[in-house]
Amino acid sequence: MKIIIVNGPNLNLLGNRENNIYGDQSFTEFFKRLEMKFSDHEIFYFQSNIEGEIIDKIQEVGFSYNGIILNAAAYTHTSVGIADAVRAITTPVVEVHISNTFSREDFRHKSYISPHAKGIIVGFGLQSYELAIQSFLEEKL
């Protein structure tokens, strides 16, 4: 199985920013653990602070991968372009958020991506990514 995690803006700062919300582990450290745990599968990682690069990556992998795990971060609540990219592809997308966006500011309650996603996982910290991977693997059984 071939799965990619696509992270949006500021997620490159995990482990250094707002530890009370996002925890103190970097995504690089966490991703190494994911690779070991799911070593029978190809898992890739892409992060960008730039909306167009995220759209480009979704389009690049959106017809050939088995799954996309997308944490568009703040773009979740603003980007019609990313939502349109998710809608345009055939690879299923699971929308993921580290924090419970519904317990935060009102603007974080709206997602442009959710209507086009296979599913949504929010509020389980970095474990949200692992749950998303498991959702793809369970589907193939």
From TrEMBL:
Pathway it works in: Metabolic intermediate biosynthesis; chorismate biosynthesis; chorismate from D-erythrose 4-phosphate and phosphoenolpyruvate: step 3/7
Entry binding sites for substrate: 71, 77, 84, 98-99, 108
Catalyzed reaction equations: 3-dehydroquinate = 3-dehydroshikimate + H2O
Gene3D superfamilies per the UniProt record, alphabetical: Dehydroquinase, class II
Chain positions of site Transition state stabilizer: 17
GO molecular function: 3-dehydroquinate dehydratase activity
Pfam families in the cross-refs: DHquinase_II (PF01220)
Active-site residues, record numbering mapped to chain: 22, 97
Described function: Catalyzes a trans-dehydration via an enolate intermediate.
Family: Belongs to the type-II 3-dehydroquinase family.
Subunit structure: Homododecamer.
HAMAP family: AroQ (MF_00169)
Designated name of the protein: 3-dehydroquinate dehydratase
